[in-house]
């Protein structure tokens, strides 16, 4: 209950600024800046992984029916991608179990209505590649990872698919992922003749497929040097795979080392932990160190590593965990932490509508049908990452280990510095305030050495929500997808939303970050935010845009806007703090 007298308010504010200056958490540069050869990542670091069997729910059945909302989502990611294509991976269990049918006119046909929910085989035709190409062109560019099955290594369908995909996708083809989670083959009954499918078996199977890829109806696929693996998730360690003959035998053709990993699963309906686990930074640090001996070998061999599928909880997520703001914050934190640990990119997984970890959901309709799309918390987690990493030279990410948060699980703050890929400039700082006390802020004192001499203005953009359990009222830069059905963010009107703030920071300064919330501090100017939705090629609005909206975004150009109201909003929150909530 803030008192109404202005005098009283002012006194409280004075009190608060005095006490918060005292309590400000120091954000200081690392003891040593990142090495010249440190991992360089780009603003398309976070991409989207799509399960094959539901691809037409996202992309539509034909190039003429690509839903405008999906173009809007992907264009938003692309707009912050420094011109880099959006990363999209098409795969999953269903890719391993499905069949490419070159003369099938339809994009997808389900073939086993009784199949396990987590692995639904389909037959798919070349229309799939046309639609993928259409999406790429409509969003300004996409680069695709495509799964190739390894369940029957000498199956002639594999080279057939690889050849046609190569021909149809052209430059949009990034790499082929050969096999999906081979370390689960035995557990999933894929090699009934073997007691235990081993790394040696895998290496042998790989060579069978490799040889077949030399001669496809469309020519030699291997000459693209774009094969990836081992795409393990669970039971094997990466280091022994890399130390086997596999890496040396295929050094030339192996473009990426790929991994898939979830912090926990819900395959039997019993998650081990809730949101509270995801909002502890040290948990995220140790998660990203999974397979670190293998990551080091890959770095020595100069092979980029991709986390080509991840999300909060495998087997479909858990309501109340996977679809919360806490997990949105975790998505940002984990992505930046993977950049620290040496990953080149990571793909957030999406499945059929209703899966709680989906970044966004297609409508309740037939595949590609009209209706309202829904944006879920994980999508918000992608936005701070894309914007913080925006740099034409790429970025090197450093964990600032604020208050020893990399190791101390009791800390509620974490932070990163985003260095230029080649120069010593720091482009941005990303600060996480995991305090789950709505209406409060924490103060962070930015070290003066972060502030460029040429431009001491900083712009702060916030990802906020009332609590870590929030599912809908989430805002990034004062914009939200809450209540939106077409993938175009609108102005957020709820109280926890915070506008961008621009301020002078010569000689260092103190900034406030709401708890819970993320602040991206842009040093020396705001990032580019122009959305280049390619309306002319999208073709989608006529057939499938449920809301009948125009492709022009009502808002993201507004993200350039400098919010004056943030100070008022934060002050209001600060008064509550002073009134005893601390
Ligand atoms: C747009 O639609 C037309 C007619 O339906 C189709 O011929 C064309 O290939 C489509 N263009 C794209 C880029 O999808
Ligand atoms: C927009 O689509 C057209 C037609 O497909 C394509 O030629 C053009 O390159 C696209 N523009 C962008 C920015 O992707
Ligand atoms: C495929 O491999 C299996 C086992 O490796 C073998 O039994 C079978 O004969 C092979 N089929 C073809 C067509 O090469
Ligand atoms: C299968 O092999 C792995 C090593 O590749 C080993 O760790 C595991 O214990 C084996 N499992 C069985 C059931 O033999
Ligand atoms: C976060 O705060 C909200 C509101 O006070 C509370 O309901 C929720 O249980 C808290 N969540 C956690 C993980 O502490
Ligand atoms: C897309 O194709 C599927 C499978 O053939 C079909 O069930 C669905 O109705 C189609 N969607 C539209 C919008 O026509
Ligand atoms: C922002 O856009 C301008 C103009 O297109 C470009 O010159 C600049 O390099 C971009 N900045 C970043 C960080 O991508
Ligand atoms: C990008 O790299 C070049 C070459 O190292 C450097 O001169 C330039 O300052 C860098 N750009 C930024 C924004 O740091």
UniProtKB/TrEMBL annotation:
Report the Pfam families cross-referenced here. Glyco_hydro_79C
According to the entry, every stretch annotated as the Beta-glucuronidase C-terminal domain falls at 415-520
Q: Does the keyword GTP-binding apply?
A: no
The protein in question is named Beta-glucuronidase C-terminal domain-containing protein
Per UniProt, the keywords (alphabetical) are:
Signal
InterPro entries in the record, alphabetically?
A: GH, GH79_Enzymes, GlcAase_C
Q: Which organism is the protein's source?
A: Lentinus tigrinus ALCF2SS1-6
Quick one: where's region Disordered? 531-559
Question: What spans are recorded as compositionally biased (Low complexity)?
Answer: 531-552
Q: In the record, which residues are listed under signal peptide?
A: 1-23
């Amino acid at each position: 209950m803030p008192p109404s007298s202005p005098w009283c308010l002012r006194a409280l504010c004075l009190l608060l600024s005095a006490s918060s200056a005292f309590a400000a958490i120091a954000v200081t540069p690392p003891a040593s800046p990142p090495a010249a050869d440190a991992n360089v990542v780009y603003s398309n670091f976070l991409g989207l992984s799509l399960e094959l069997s539901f691809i037409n729910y996202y992309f539509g059945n034909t190039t003429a029916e690509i839903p405008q909302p999906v173009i809007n989502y992907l264009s938003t990611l692309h707009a912050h991608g420094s011109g880099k294509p959006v990363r999209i991976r098409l795969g999953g269990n269903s890719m391993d179990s499905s069949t490419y049918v070159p003369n099938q006119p339809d994009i997808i046909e389900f073939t086993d209505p009784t199949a396990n929910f987590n692995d639904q085989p389909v037959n798919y035709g070349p229309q799939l590649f046309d639609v993928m190409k259409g999406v790429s062109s409509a969003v300004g560019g996409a680069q695709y990872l495509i799964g190739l099955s390894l369940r029957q290594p000498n199956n002639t369908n594999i080279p057939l698919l690889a050849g046609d995909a190569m021909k149809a996708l052209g430059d949009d083809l990034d790499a082929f992922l050969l096999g999906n989670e081979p370390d689960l083959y035995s557990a999933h009954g894929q090699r009934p003749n073997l007691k235990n499918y081993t790394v040696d078996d895998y290496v042998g199977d790989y060579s069978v497929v490799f040889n077949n890829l030399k001669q496809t109806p469309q020519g030699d696929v291997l000459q693209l040097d774009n094969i990836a693996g081992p795409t393990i998730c669970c039971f094997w360690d990466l280091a022994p795979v890399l130390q086997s003959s596999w890496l040396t035998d295929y050094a030339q053709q192996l473009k990426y080392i790929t991994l898939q990993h979830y912090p926990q699963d819900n395959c039997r309906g019993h998650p081990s932990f809730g949101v509270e686990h995801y909002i502890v930074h040290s948990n995220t640090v140790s998660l990203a160190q999974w397979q670190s001996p293998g990551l080091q070998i890959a770095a020595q061999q100069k092979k980029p590593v991709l986390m080509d599928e991840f999300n909060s909880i495998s087997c479909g997520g858990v309501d109340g965990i996977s679809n919360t703001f806490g997990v949105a914050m975790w998505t940002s934190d984990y992505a930046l932490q993977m950049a620290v640990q040496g990953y080149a990119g990571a793909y957030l997984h999406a499945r059929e509508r209703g899966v709680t970890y989906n970044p966004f959901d297609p409508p309740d309709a037939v595949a590609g049908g009209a209706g309202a799309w829904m944006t879920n918390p994980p999508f918000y987690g992608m936005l701070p990452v894309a914007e913080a990493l925006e740099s034409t030279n790429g970025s090197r990410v450093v964990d600032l280990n604020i208050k020893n948060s990399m190791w101390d699980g009791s800390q509620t703050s974490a932070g990163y510095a985003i260095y230029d890929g080649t120069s010593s400039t720091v482009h941005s700082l990303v600060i996480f305030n995991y305090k789950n006390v709505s209406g409060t802020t924490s103060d962070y004192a930015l070290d003066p050495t972060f502030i460029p001499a040429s431009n001491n203005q900083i712009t702060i953009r916030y990802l906020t929500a009332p609590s870590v359990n929030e599912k809908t009222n989430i805002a990034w830069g004062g914009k939200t997808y809450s209540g939106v059905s077409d993938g175009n963010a609108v102005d957020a009107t709820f109280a926890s939303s915070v506008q961008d703030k621009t301020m002078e920071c010569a000689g260092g300064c103190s900034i406030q970050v709401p708890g819970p919330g993320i602040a991206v501090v842009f040093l020396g100017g705001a990032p580019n935010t122009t959305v280049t939705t390619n309306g002319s090629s999208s073709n989608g609005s006529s057939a499938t845009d449920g809301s009948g909206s125009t492709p022009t975004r009502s808002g993201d150009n507004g993200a350039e806007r400098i919010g004056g109201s943030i100070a008022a909003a934060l002050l209001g929150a600060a008064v509550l703090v002073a009134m005893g909530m601390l």
